[in-house]
Write a structure and sequence with these properties.
The two termini are about 30 Å apart. The protein is mainly α. It has a two-stranded antiparallel sheet with strand order 1-2. It contains seven helices and two strands; from the N terminus they run H-E-E-H-H-H-H-H-H. The longest helix is centred in the last third of the chain and has 37 residues.
Length: about 170
């Protein structure tokens, strides 16, 4: 039992570090902004972490990235938004879809969980600035959401193939 707790702590810390580093260094530029690939790792974390552990990793990694990148005013909101995204995707994938090895189940779980991104940052921008800024952020945050889901699902498919080979489930 003690080993399981240690494994969960190590996996959570690993995902905090991965999400932080990927958020800092891997961005895909598009017309009016950048797609942050770190969100994709939060979604992929559902394959490896429980809801609470993924919520912690999903919140802390981007929180630290916001502080490092100079977005300190967004950091507390990011912590909450990404914590919720991690909890939701892991809850859906593990308990609603019961870890089914299905692309459709992972796609649905990641789509539903990612809705937190545009909604959360809309509310954040309304709180920090005004309603117009909130609405203006919806386009970029929706692009971020869709791109994260696509990237996560492509990577999850590949990861599942490797894990299935390793487990002998060709």
């Amino acid at each position: 039992m003690k080993n399981k707790h240690i494994i969960n702590i190590v996996r959570t810390a690993l995902f905090v570090a991965l999400i932080y580093i990927v958020t800092l260094f891997i961005n895909i530029p598009y017309g009016v902004g950048n797609i942050n690939v770190g969100d994709s790792l939060i979604l992929i974390g559902a394959l490896f972490l429980s809801p609470i552990h993924l919520g912690i990793a999903g919140g802390i990694g981007p929180f630290l990235a916001d502080i490092t990148l100079g977005y300190g005013s967004y950091a507390p909101f990011t912590l909450i938004i990404k914590f919720l995204e991690g909890i939701i995707v892991s809850l859906l994938y593990r308990y609603v879809f019961k870890n089914k090895n299905s692309m459709i189940c992972f796609l649905l779980a990641s789509l539903v969980a990612s809705i937190v991104i545009p909604l959360g940052y809309f509310l954040t921008n309304v709180f920090l600035y005004d309603l117009a800024t909130g609405f203006a952020s919806l386009v970029g945050d929706s692009i971020q959401m869709i791109a994260s889901v696509i990237i996560a699902n492509v990577l999850a498919y590949s990861i599942r193939k490797v894990l299935n080979k390793y487990d002998g489930k060709n």
